[in-house]
Design brief:
Largest sheet: 6 strands, parallel
Shape: globular
Strand content: 5-15%
Number of helices: 17
Number of strands: 14
Length: about 500
């Protein structure tokens, strides 16, 4: 293929346009500004880029001085997966809590207020909501990130979330197509596999995505999962059958298709980063999410050059790359208009209101009132990569404010129960767990505590799959900061 200098420049601009890279630091490095001038149409923010709302607003304003309709993306699901509140915990409960309440109007309000805050600090593309049906309760990566395990419930709340987010002028990105809920492997580490028949997929996994499309979702994120009933060879992100024939063709979706993080091991270890990028665009993806791990200029240039080389060699049709870049620019223009037109009043209390409504409280024993400082024993599992390890969780901080003198400790492993009992030193115990059903050591630790102290209050901040136990059992349906506040209020109120 022979190309003119002008053709080379256009091709390189299109290759940059389809990338959504991250970067290090709370100010954008010089290379980001320079590449925007060369065609980069989007950047991605992660927790490492956030110090405060005001700082993010200043960062995005400086980037938009280069290009007004620049897409600024973030993975702000709220709940357990938060970037804006990465240091404090989210001011909004996550999807599982909203599904537990099952009030689509409330979900719409929460998403609208979250969208308003994102727009206020210059973010215009949110990689949320999760439309996954959490069919496997042992799922290591979805869990409370899903609205629930019921298909119709997930569908109505996915649609409500999309409507609320986009009313604030922020594009929603519904994920993880064609559905990551029935998996027991984390795609950050390997390729998960869903072995169900096509009929089940159409009746379960695809229903929430249809609802999102009908609600007008501006973006859909692909999943790095193998679904043999649809494509026995390639994971969703790299599958033409899944992205082009199913999502575009059968479901009639015409918006932006974004990949999940392309450097995740499910893709980069199996196919290689550069080849994975080419295969994703060829399959029908329009934008490449990268930067959760790799966030340097060299990575961006390698991906750009891989796309350019693939077009020149004939491996990737030039028209496919041009179409992908055009969809990115079209979404950027939509966000610029939507930002100007949005007029959303502040709803500052809706997060705590939703967290309070999401509580499920069961009295399982003879509980006496809590009117003195307690000892909070938090049984802390290793977080999945999507959640990260930086964000605090639990009820300790909230109880310390309500019951001065309360102290806390964190415990992990087979001796967690005996260690917590010794640390409590006779004080009333509040035991905090997260997905007890997934961690045998956690259940064993609770056994030890409850045998010695049956008046222990148990707070489950994950998926409440295990039987309720303790003098009082409180399920928050998520570990957002407001979920901890709501639980602490209930403990003190009795």
């Amino acid at each position: 293929m022979t190309m003119s200098a002008t053709g080379n420049e256009s091709l390189a601009r299109d290759a940059l346009a389809v990338l959504q890279p991250g970067f290090a630091g709370t100010t954008a490095p010089e290379w980001v500004h320079r590449r925007i001038g060369e065609g980069l149409a989007a950047v991605a923010l992660f927790g490492r880029n956030v110090a405060s709302f005001e700082q993010v607003a200043e960062l995005t304003a400086r980037l938009r001085a280069e290009q007004d309709d620049l897409l600024v993306a973030i993975d702000e699901e709220s709940g357990d997966v938060t970037r804006l509140d990465v240091r404090t915990g989210s001011a909004f409960p996550g999807s599982h809590a909203l599904g537990a309440v099952d009030d689509p109007d409330l979900t719409r309000r929460v998403a609208r207020e979250l969208g308003r805050r994102l727009a206020e600090c210059g973010v215009n593309l949110n990689w949320a909501p999760s439309a996954d049906v959490n069919a496997d309760p042992g799922n290591p990566v979805i869990g409370v990130r899903a609205f629930g395990a019921d298909t119709d419930l997930v569908a109505r709340h996915t649609a409500a979330y999309v409507e609320g987010m986009q009313a604030a002028g922020v594009a929603a990105c519904t994920k993880h197509f064609p559905g990551h809920g029935d998996t027991n492997v984390d795609s950050h580490h390997a390729i998960p596999r869903i072995d169900v028949d096509e009929d089940t997929l159409y009746k379960r996994e695809l229903v929430p995505f249809r609802a999102a499309i009908e609600a007008g979702t501006r973006a859909v994120m692909s999943a790095h999962i193998l679904v043999p009933a649809l494509d026995p060879e390639r994971p969703g992100t790299l599958s033409r059958r899944i992205l082009t024939e199913l999502l575009r063709g059968e479901l009639g979706y015409d918006g932006l298709i974004v990949t999940d993080g392309i450097e995740m091991q499910a893709i980069s270890r199996t196919y290689g980063l550069e080849h994975g990028v080419v295969l994703a665009i060829e399959a029908g993806a329009d934008a490449i999410c990268v930067g959760g791990g790799l966030c340097d200029e060299g990575t961006v240039l390698k991906m750009r050059d891989a796309l350019v080389a693939a077009v020149r060699s004939g491996e990737l049709p030039e028209e496919r790359l041009a179409d992908a870049a055009a969809r990115v620019r079209s979404l950027a223009r939509w966000t610029a208009r939507a930002r100007r037109d949005a007029d959303v009043p502040a709803d500052p209390e809706v997060g705590l209101v939703a967290a309070r409504r999401a509580l499920a409280v069961i009295g399982t024993g003879a509980a006496r009132p809590v009117d003195a400082p307690v000892y909070v024993a938090t049984f802390n599992p290793a977080p999945n990569i999507a959640v990260g390890h930086e964000t605090p969780w639990g009820v300790g901080a909230a109880l310390e404010r309500l019951l001065p003198g309360t102290t806390t400790g964190t415990f992990t492993g087979p001796d967690a129960g005996s260690a917590a009992l010794a640390a409590a030193d006779g004080r009333r115990i509040v035991a905090v767990v997260r997905d007890e059903h997934r961690h045998a050591w956690m259940g064993a630790g609770l056994d030890v505590l409850l045998a010695a102290r049956p008046d222990t209050i148990v707070v489950e901040m994950g998926v409440p799959q295990s039987p309720a136990r303790g003098a009082v059992h409180i399920a928050t349906h998520g570990a957002a900061r407001v979920c901890g506040v709501a639980a602490a209020e209930r403990i003190v109120a009795g």
